[in-house]
Design a protein that fits this description.
The chain has 137 residues and is mainly beta. It is 6% helix and 33% strand. Zinc ion (ZN) binds next to loops.
């Protein structure tokens, strides 16, 4: 089971996001004034300045915007992974998330830009927050 770093609180911008992750939901804030998706999460809308945001739940489906493959990482929590992807995922609701594409035999060959993916929540050896990752559909 992976041992990825866990979020630390208090962190008012992202705490609702992590509370969603704990319930296996991908949540994102939207401005109630101009309907702008605000991601990465913050306390105000960067488009109109309003502080009135509401949290919605994503379908968890999207496409690979771009990616890279890390062939070796000696950091604790990553050392046992072998080659793994780091990928930007464009969610269908209009926000981009930095994550990883998992469940492929060879990340150097089996991931491509525009690939459809769906979120899943990777349980961690320590800590109560799973990590959102994406699997090709
Ligand atoms: Zn706004």
């Amino acid at each position: 089971m992976p041992k990825r770093p866990q979020p630390r609180f208090p962190e008012p911008n992202t705490e609702p996001y992590w509370n969603g992750v704990k319930e296996r939901e991908l949540r994102y804030p939207v401005c109630t004034v101009c309907d702008q998706v605000v991601f990465t999460p913050r306390m105000h809308c960067p488009a109109c300045g309003a502080r009135d945001l509401e949290w919605r739940t994503s379908s968890g489906e999207g496409t690979v915007y771009t990616f890279s493959v890390v062939r070796q990482n000696r950091m604790p929590g990553f050392i046992d992974l072998g080659a793994y992807s780091v990928a930007y995922i464009d969610l269908d609701e209009g926000f981009r998330l930095l994550s990883s594409v998992v469940g492929v035999d060879d990340p150097t060959r089996d991931i491509h830009i525009g690939q459809r993916v769906r979120v899943e929540f990777e349980e961690q050896e320590e800590g109560e927050y799973p990590i959102p990752v994406f699997r090709p559909v």
